[in-house]
Structure prediction request, 260 residues.
Amino acid sequence: MSLYLPGEFWTVSNPFIEDDGPQPPVVLKAPVEIVANLRQLQQNHDPLVITFHERSQRFQSYLIEVERDKNRLTLDEMIPNDGERFLQNGEPFRIEAFHEGVRVAWECLQPVQIAEYQGARCYFSPMPEEVHYHQRRNAYRVPLKQIEPVKIELAGAKLRSPITGQLLDISATGCKVRLPGNIASSLHSGQVYESFTAQLPFGALTIAVELRHVQYEETLDTTFAGVRFHRLNGLEQRQVERFVYQLQRDARRFDSDGLF
Prediction:
């Protein structure tokens, strides 16, 4: 089973194995694998970060269309849009995105076409010949149903006041959370926050976490953050594993086509 096709990102034999660090990056060159991963970004509306060679400014965009038959991608208008002048100059750029903890990146060395899509500004870019794929964890991460929200609170000495939000998914080693508003500048990758509280069905769990990545999505006015559980003791580990196992069991019950 390929690790790079949709719906197969986190397949492992044991959902509670220790996360010993990031998995080795892989360069995808098969068109079917490239298209599958880019369509994941498109369908999940994952933000793209665009950087131009030898320039420090970062721009945000989204994948609107992935057209294998035309061998092209349609990118949404950049935010801020003053980066468009670099496209007009034919400057090469790099695109980076994260989907459920997987880093997907590629370069565009050819000129793009500035056009319109459904009345809005867009850019036609050639389909990349290779995509860098980096799975940052090896523990199976289980998504939560939106009808079963789990509230979280992040606090610590590095924060002026606690931040509240909602749990999006969880594994034995970490989780992803949604936080209202633009608070990305208040959070720092690599920082350990002493108090992360999740209101699990069988009681509140309070542990320390390390922030791994943070991304603000302007269209949703929402900040998304990925954290790794920091130095869990035996009881805390069992509570997390119990919750993950419960989610997996419920998902199997309602999905007859596979695990998730």
Q: What stands out?
A: Helices lie at 31-43, 84-88, 234-254.
